[in-house]
Amino acid sequence: MKAIYAGERGSFAELAAREYFGRKRRIEQVELFEDVFNDVTKCPGVQGIVPIENTRAGSVHRNYDMLLESGCSIVGELYLKIGQFLIANKTATPRNVRRVLSHPQALAQCRTYLRAHPEMKPVETVNTAAAVKTIKEDRSLDSAAIASMQAAIDFDMKILARNIQDDKNNMTRFLILSRRPNRSMAKGIPVKSSIVFSMRNIPGALFRSLAVFSLRDIDLYKIESRPMFGQGFQYLFYLDFEGSATAEKQRHALNHLQEMTSFYRFLGSYPVGRQVAPVYGRR
Amino acid sequence: MKAIYAGERGSFAELAAREYFGRKRRIEQVELFEDVFNDVTKCPGVQGIVPIENTRAGSVHRNYDMLLESGCSIVGELYLKIGQFLIANKTATPRNVRRVLSHPQALAQCRTYLRAHPEMKPVETVNTAAAVKTIKEDRSLDSAAIASMQAAIDFDMKILARNIQDDKNNMTRFLILSRRPNRSMAKGIPVKSSIVFSMRNIPGALFRSLAVFSLRDIDLYKIESRPMFGQGFQYLFYLDFEGSATAEKQRHALNHLQEMTSFYRFLGSYPVGRQVAPVYGRR
Questions:
Q1: Partner-chain contact A168 B214, CB within 8 Å
Q2: Partner residue opposite A233 with nearest CB, options B55, B210, B220
Q3: pTM strictly above 0.90
Q4: Which residues of A touch B204 (CB under 8 A)?
Q5: Virtual CA dihedral for B251, B253, B259, B265, nearest 10 degrees?
Q6: Which of B57-61, B103-107, B154-158 is predicted least confidently?
Q7: Domains, chain A, ranges and CATH?
Q8: pLDDT at position B62, please?
Q9: Is B222 within 8 Å of A213 when comparing Cβ atoms?
């Protein structure tokens, strides 16, 4: 029983995998998000974890597309609190830092901090671990990296500043993927379901599609639109709603919806995810 | 009277600016999207043009955020057909190409072509012009670049393959920005309007917000949700709808909507954009 994530060691994806799977599965790293989807589709025993949306950066569009292309099912979710740390070599001091290395998205999340420190020049790297590795190998005293606290622990570095991201409430939502949908879930826990569909060309199509839920008092969690491949600006809608797809009113709503869709796929029903802070530590 | 775009020369942003403004405005280049928003906000005479969504890659989220932060108005739009070209030095031949340089997004748009040519290793560059410039300066015969045809003309290079992007119907939508909204528009032309809002915490909020348009037979073009800064997963909605905000039924709909919103801003009414293919040529 294996669980896979894409990303370097010490990344938020790895922290999310450890948090969600704990010791229940052997956790392995793959290179790309694409590899996660491919391996999950091919191997019945394997589950995968991928980021799908961040409170600041928005949705990870490519992962929405691959969710559809791969045919994977969603079997769970997790909300991970994201904190960015300024990391340097042990003898470095904050006042000497002239260059800050990190992935463009991490640099973007710390815009306010970097603006307040105009002497620190941002430098882009392929990922956050590469940033930490570079300053460690260079033994640089005038450079720092932005990364998770786990990277500071893994590379045995010093933390110059904590939680320097603009949004102190920054969270990333991760999806747990499997080859087949959940068959049964514990009773009494809050459940949500995800679908993807496109509407036939009828007036007020989007409004009508939401009406099938609202008229049955089914709450919507999220709607995301994506342009359909090769169709110009026609949209696919990804919708998350309250409850299991096998419950009575949800079943009726989904039947009603399919009277109006030109394309429809069920992505999964799963327990509503917990909001957790990462647990850092030595391996 | 000046118009500004962000991006290298020969980029699709420059082609869009030339197409939209023609000889009516002096077209100037700035470095970042942020500079476009800043300059438009500061200078009454300046208009800007920025990409807001692509049929394949989806919305440019950062530009949605800056639209709100800057306080700019939308005064026009343009749909530009996007074609990617494989470009090399004059004596290069397709069969010798081992490396293909380009911006990650251009490489992603040509995935099928690159998969069909596994001997061509993709190499990421900061932008497409940098890719062309590098192979020209290196006089490399085993490398090619992916860029617009304009880049091939500007750098006087050879085209090895045309329209190699996966989606032959690939288009990018550009917005035209100004400090103040349009005051008047020619009569009889199709018009659309854009707003941004968030809903008070009421059941079926999104459904109710769309109802104010559907109940008045006002067509919706697009809805985009963005997480609200510092609010966890609460969403701002960007909505494009048919007609001018000053027309009678649209005015009623917008008043109705504001009974339910916790935040509301009007972004502009403007003529529905044309779909155009870029016009390439020597400068």
A1: no
A2: B55
A3: no
A4: 213-214, 217, 219-220
A5: -60
A6: B57-61
A7: 2-81+171-276 (3.30.70.260), 85-161 (3.40.190.10)
A8: 80
A9: no
What are the pLDDT digits (tens) for B80-135? 998 999 999 999 999 999 999 998 878 988 989 999 999 999 998 878 888 999 99
Per-residue pLDDT band at B283 (split at 50, 70, 90): low
Cα–Cα dist B70/A91, whole Å: 41
- Region of B249 on the Ramachandran plot (φ > 0 left; ψ -120 to 50 alpha; else beta): alpha
Please give the residue of chain B at the shortest CA–CA distance from A59.
B226
In chain A, the residue whose alpha carbon lies closest to the alpha carbon of B166 is A230
Q: What ranges in chain B are assigned the alpha helix state H? A: 12-21, 33-42, 61-70, 104-109, 111-116, 128-138, 149-154, 205-214, 248-258
Long-range contacts of B99-102 (CB under 8 A, 24+ apart): B99/B123, B99/B140, B99/B142, B99/B143, B99/B144, B100/B143, B100/B144, B100/B145, B100/B146, B101/B125, B101/B130, B101/B131, B101/B134, B101/B135, B101/B143, B101/B144, B101/B145, B101/B146, B102/B128, B102/B131, B102/B145, B102/B146, B102/B147
Q: Do A230 and B167 touch (CB under 8 A)?
A: yes
Q: Which residues of A form the catalytic set?
A: 172, 174
HSE (side-chain half, CA atoms, 13 Å) at A134: 20
Phi, psi of B55 (to 5 degrees): -60, -30
Distance from CA of B92 to the nearest CA of A (A): 30
Chain A partners within 8 Å of B214 (Cβ): 204, 207-208
The verdict on a CB contact (< 8 Å) between A53 and B223 is: no
A118, A144 in Cβ contact below 8 A?
Answer: no
The beta-carbon neighbor of B232 closest among A171, A214, A229 is: A171
> Does B91 qualify as catalytic in the annotation?
no
* Residue with tokens 């939680």, as numbered in its chain: A163
Q: Distance (Å, rounded) from C-alpha A159 to C-alpha A31?
A: 27
Interface test with A, best of B163, B168, B192, B206 (most A CBs within 10 A): B206
DSSP B211-279: HHHHTTTPPEEEEEEEEPTTSSS-EEEEEEEES-TTSHHHHHHHHHHHTTEEEEEEEEEEEPPPEE---
Coil, strand, or helix at residue A213? helix
pLDDT digits (tens, 9 = 90+) for A144-186: 999 999 999 999 999 999 999 988 888 899 999 999 999 888 8
CB contact under 8 A, A223 and B219: no
Position A17: which residue type?
Answer: A
Question: Nearest 5°: phi and psi at B210?
Answer: -75, -30
Q: Do B58 and A53 touch (CB under 8 A)?
A: no
Distance CA B104, CA B86 (A): 15
Residues comprising chain B, all counted: 283
pLDDT score, position A232:
67
Q: What angle do CA B34, B38, B41 make, to 5 degrees?
A: 140
* Catalytic residue from among B41, B125, B128, B172: B172
